[in-house]
Amino acid sequence: MSIDPELVALAQKVVEENRAAGRRVATAESCTGGLVAAALTEIPGASDVVDRAYVTYSNEAKTEMLGVSDDILTTLGAVSEATAWAMAQGALAKSHADVAVAISGIAGPGGGTEKKPVGTVVFARAIKDQKAGPVVADTHHFGDLGRTEIRRQAALVALRLLLP
Question: Ranges for the CinA C-terminal domain (predicted)?
Answer without folding.
Answer: 9-163
